[in-house]
Structures are given as C-alpha cells and as structure tokens.
Amino acid sequence: ASKGNVAYSAAKAAELHMARCLAEEGGPIGVRVNTVLPDAVLEGSGIWDQGWRAARAAGYGIKPEELEDFYKARTVLKVNVRPEDIAEAVSYFAGPRGSRTTGGMITVDGGVTAAYAR
User: Fold this and answer.
1) Phi, psi (rounded to 5 degrees) for 46
2) Which CATH number is correct for 6-39+75-115, 3.40.50.720, 3.30.428.10, 3.40.50.300, 3.40.440.10?
3) Of these residues, 8, 71, 92, 116, which one is catalytic?
4) pTM of the model
C-alpha cells in the first residue's frame, strides 16, 4: 500500500482474493487459478506513450526522462520489471512445475512490495 493509491491497492488485494476463491471453486474439477502481480512495466507496453509518461512523471514531480530511474530507485533490487519477467511467472503457473499450485500469487516488482513493509 502507498499513499494516494487506495483504489489501486484495493484492486490488487481483490485480485489475489478472487484468485483464491476461484481456485477453491475450480479445484475439484481440475481448474487451477493463480495470479501474477507485477509492478509497472515501462518497456514493451503501449500505455507508456509520451503523454502517459509525462502525466505520470508530473504526478511524482519529476521530468518524464527521469521516470525509469525513479521507478528503479524505489525497488529493493534496483531494477525495472520487463515483459519477459512477467512471462516467466506466467510460464511457471502454466507449466508442469506449477501443476500443483492453485490460489497462489507471484509478485514481480523488483521488491517494491518488500520496501513498503518498512
């Protein structure tokens, strides 16, 4: 959770709870339900056009060209999440290694969630 993000934080919590409820309902018929909770993905996403970047940066009081470094600095691992990072998490759930996993989540955020635990 973070200041100013009540709706976003509530939606993330609801996503996990929904996955758990659906896993319980689907389990008896062999349906597995899991969720991946990513941080912002700055590359490879159409929503991060210049206008969106400018608006997001303005909200943080920084310049658009500083946005990637800003996101990286707030993570424990000092990295930005890439599309392939999320794909790896989804592949785990969908593949044989995740065949006994349901109602679970993988947080792919470079440690943003861990940083909020302070």
Assistant:
1) -65, -20
2) 3.40.50.720
3) 8
4) 0.82
